[in-house]
């Protein structure tokens, strides 16, 4: 049986080795100018070091270029792609077709992963981006398990899903936190504005708490709970999903290494000893519940939910 | 006659005129609104069908109604577009081909699409339809515009986050029709990149279920250790991300000179009064500017007229740069409109000087009212005696859609509207 890749997002270069030791197969990194909602900023030098480190351990590195680009950044795309090609990164994650255009123009030989967070919702469109040059599609988080499996069955590209961590609910180009502070007459600490940690919106009616932060790409609002599918991976593995992502945004390294090592065990057992997986999976969920950050519960996202419209 | 280099204008008899007049594109949630939009001066109208569109709460059009709308629009030389801009899930693929063929058969000019599934299906099964990329794709740079041109699309609707300078550069670099929003409510998120409704109400925002959670109030806190510190005081309004509505009336000349192909008004859920008012004002602005751009001045009465149907305060949003605090609303959830739409003219008897109207809101004898419409200059008058259809005297028009008459000494035309200040 095919073993899916375990993909994690480190927040700095020094996270990489501990996460390799915890069992990660691949890393998604990048910088705000090109990527969105990353766990940390990786300069070009950081990317280079990460690639060296990961490749020395036969692990993969994907670099995020999934921002929504305006004209001002278009001119930068070719140079960055050429830089990444020179490092032999294992993939570039994009949402904006400008990246495909720039990749063609520069003639780089890079795997492209299509990821728009919210709009990867059917297999036809995954395959469409495949025909445009993508080798992988990252699915929207708002899909239920049946849809995910149906997409995988009909996909001509690799399929990646997020199995753990917070997900994005909203991106605005406006500086919504800064605007609110300004409305209150508070002086905004511009330095502190970058990914100021710990801000959240309280939704009184639902008693939910949504993390919110601002960066170069605008304002981002995140899900109130962390997805945790460690005890529900079997159908995905059986369906042949290619990559499982654990998103490390706004998480500590100790949390990430522990969660990564639990998923490592889960995946390994699923392909070798399903009974052992069944026996142990509840303990892993309990362990994750113990280490969840203050205010954040785990749930199963949209995998078992029906949405109407 | 000399064609100027800009491709936008010519000099005729020593006077510059605009020869590339942009399309004025209006929304319509049903057939009545479509007819009003066209009658009041829209060059094109976008409507939603029963499926695959993003306003599942709107009335929306059956294929037969689309055909009727197209027939009506044809008399005015106007075009109809159908929004089919959901991001489809696998289960939505059924029926798509028949649906697109139905739209094509109804004589619709084009569809507005976000999902490549629908783009490619349309090209395959309904090739007569133009394909316009929806703002749901949040198209924000010229290279992505180039991508969609190479995919064979006739037109792209840009992200609402694009500025005048950015649009200008796109227009210069890529030869494709560009459509941008000029008026109406807008998403505060990048369109298509928001799933607040999915999380908060289990309604899929990208398939028409958006319940506008972004317009709700929230409280902003900071987690310090395990302490939750409120970042607001008693007197502050709660955290909000409700944008003021877009209004670019004063930028229309600039947009025309940039060569933008279609100027779009938002609001398929809005009333016929709103559509009529907004369309007629922008019609006047575009016509006046194109006829004599070098002596154009924006008229105060146009601005006043727009305010008569405003639901919220307004702002230029991203056209002039990234909007700040003043372009959002805190502690305000809209504003009361200053006028009520009270009657739709059905008939005017010139000899007797009697107007026949359909009641759309309460009014009574003695009320001061205003008439407007494409054939007339706005005027106000005082209503004297009101009669019902049978000639019985009424103290007030109380019933929705009731047919009433009263004496009016100025000529009005069918589909003119009567409004009343609050």
How would you characterize the overall build of this protein?
The complex is a heterodimer of chains A (309) and B (422). With 309 residues, chain A is α/β, with parallel strands linked by helices. Chain A folds into two domains: 5-167 and 225-299, TIM Barrel (Alpha-Beta Barrel), CATH 3.20.20.70; 171-219, no CATH class. Chain A is built from eleven helices and 14 strands. An eight-stranded parallel barrel of chain A has the order 1-2-3-4-5-6-7-13, surrounded by six helices. In chain A, helix 10 runs antiparallel to helix 11 (274-291). The longest helix of chain A is centred in the C-terminal third of the chain and has 20 residues, at 253-272. Chain A is globular, with a radius of gyration of 19 Å. The model of chain A has no long low-confidence stretch (mean pLDDT 95). In chain B, 24% of the residues lie in helices and 28% in strands. The radius of gyration of chain B is 23 Å and the shape is globular. By secondary structure, chain B is an alpha/beta fold. Chain B has two domains: 2-191 and 242-329, Aldolase class I (TIM Barrel, Alpha-Beta Barrel); 339-421, Elongation Factor Tu (Ef-tu), domain 3 (Beta Barrel). Chain B has helices spanning 31-39, 63-76, 96-105, 116-125, 142-150, 164-173, 196-201, 252-258, 272-291, 300-307; strands spanning 2-3, 9-12, 15-18, 23-27, 44-48, 79-84, 110-113, 130-133, 155-157, 177-184, 219-224, 227-230, 242-243, 245-247, 262-265, 314-315, 328-329, 339-349, 354-359, 363-364, 368-373, 376-382, 386-388, 393-394, 396-397, 403-407, 417-421. In chain B, the strands form six sheets. Chain B has an eight-stranded parallel barrel with strand order 4-5-6-7-8-9-10-15, surrounded by five helices. In chain B, strands 22-21-27-18-19-26-23-24 form an eight-stranded antiparallel β-sheet. A three-stranded antiparallel β-sheet of chain B has the order 1-2-3. In chain B, helix 5 crosses helix 6 (164-173). Chain A: GO terms for molecular function: hydrolase activity. Chain A: It holds the Pfam family Peptidase_U32. Chain A: InterPro entries: Peptidase_U32, RNA/ubiquinone_mod_enzymes. Chain A: This is Putative hydrolase small subunit. Chain A: Keywords: Hydrolase.
């Amino acid at each position: 049986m095919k073993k899916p890749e375990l993909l994690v997002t480190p927040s700095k270069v020094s996270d990489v080795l501990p996460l390799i030791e915890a069992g990660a197969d691949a890393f998604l990194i990048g910088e705000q100018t090109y990527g969105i909602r990353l766990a940390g900023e990786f300069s070009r030098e950081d990317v280079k070091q990460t690639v060296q480190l990961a490749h020395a351990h036969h692990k993969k590195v994907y670099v995020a270029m999934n921002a929504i680009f305006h004209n001002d950044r278009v001119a930068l795309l070719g140079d960055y792609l050429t830089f990444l090609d020179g490092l032999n990164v294992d993939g570039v994650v994009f949402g904006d077709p400008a990246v495909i255009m720039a990749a063609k123009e520069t003639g780089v030989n890079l795997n492209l992963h299509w990821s728009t967070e919210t709009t990867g919702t059917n297999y036809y469109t995954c395959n469409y981006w495949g025909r445009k040059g993508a080798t992988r599609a990252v699915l929207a988080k708002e899909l239920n398990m049946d849809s995910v499996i149906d997409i995988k069955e009909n996909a001509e590209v690799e399929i990646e899903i997020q199995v753990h961590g917070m997900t994005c609910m909203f991106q605005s180009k406006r500086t919504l936190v800064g605007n609110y502070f300004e409305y209150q007459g508070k002086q905004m600490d511009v330095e502190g504005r970058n990914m100021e940690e710990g801000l959240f919106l309280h939704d009184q009616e639902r008693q939910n708490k949504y993390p919110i932060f601002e960066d170069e790409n605008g304002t981002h609002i995140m899900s109130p709970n962390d997805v945790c599918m460690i005890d529900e991976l079997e159908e995905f593995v059986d369906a042949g999903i290619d990559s499982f992502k654990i998103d490390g945004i706004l998480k500590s390294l100790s949390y990430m290494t522990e969660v990564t090592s639990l998923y490592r065990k889960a995946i390994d057992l699923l392909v070798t000893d399903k009974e052992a997986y069944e026996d142990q999976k509840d303990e892993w969920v309990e362990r994750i519940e113990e280490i969840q950050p203050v205010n954040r519960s785990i749930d199963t996202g949209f995998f078992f939910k029906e949405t109407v419209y | 006659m000399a064609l100027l280099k800009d491709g936008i204008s010519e000099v005729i008899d020593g006077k510059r005129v605009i020869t590339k007049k942009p399309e004025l594109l209006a929304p319509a949630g049903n057939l009545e609104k479509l007819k009003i939009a066209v009658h009041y001066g829209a060059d094109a109208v976008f409507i939603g069908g029963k499926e695959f569109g993003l306003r599942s709460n709107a009335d929306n059009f059956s294929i037969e109604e689309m055909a009727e709308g197209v027939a009506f629009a044809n008399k005015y030389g106007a075009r109809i577009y159908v929004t089919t801009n959901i991001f489809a899930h696998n289960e939505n693929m059924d029926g798509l081909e028949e649906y697109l063929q139905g739209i094509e058969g109804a004589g619709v000019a084009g569809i507005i699409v976000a999902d490549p599934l629908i783009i490619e299906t349309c090209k395959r099964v309904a090739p007569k339809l133009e394909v316009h990329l929806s703002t749901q794709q949040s198209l924000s740079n010229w290279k992505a515009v180039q991508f969609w041109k190479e995919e064979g699309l006739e037109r792209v609707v840009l992200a609402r986050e694009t500025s005048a300078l950015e649009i200008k550069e796109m227009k210069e670099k890529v030869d494709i029709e560009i459509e941008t929003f000029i008026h109406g409510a807008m998403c505060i998120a990048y369109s298509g990149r928001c799933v607040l409704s999915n999380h908060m109400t289990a309604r899929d925002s990208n398939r028409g279920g958006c319940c506008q959670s972004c317009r709700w109030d929230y409280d902003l806190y900071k987690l310090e250790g395990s302490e939750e510190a409120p970042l607001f005081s008693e007197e502050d309004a709660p955290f909000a991300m409700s944008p003021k509505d877009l209004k670019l009336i004063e930028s229309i000349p600039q947009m025309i000179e940039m060569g933008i192909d279609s100027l779009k008004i938002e609001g398929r859920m809005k009333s016929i009064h709103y559509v009529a008012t907004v369309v007629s004002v922008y019609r006047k602005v575009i016509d006046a500017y194109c006829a004599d751009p070098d002596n154009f001045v924006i008229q105060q009465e146009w601005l006043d007229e727009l305010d008569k149907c405003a639901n919220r305060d307004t702002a230029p949003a991203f056209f002039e740069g990234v909007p700040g605090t003043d372009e959002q609303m805190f502690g305000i959830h809209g504003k009361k409109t200053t006028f009520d739409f009270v009657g739709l003219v059905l008939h005017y008897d010139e000899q007797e000087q009697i107007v026949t109207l359909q009641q759309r809101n309460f009014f009574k004898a003695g009320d001061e009212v205003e008439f407007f419409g494409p054939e007339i200059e706005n005027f106000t008058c005082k209503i004297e005696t009101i009669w019902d259809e049978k000639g019985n005297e009424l103290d007030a028009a109380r019933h929705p859609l009731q047919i009433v008459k009263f004496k009016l000494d100025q000529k009005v035309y069918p589909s003119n509207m009567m409004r009343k200040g609050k």
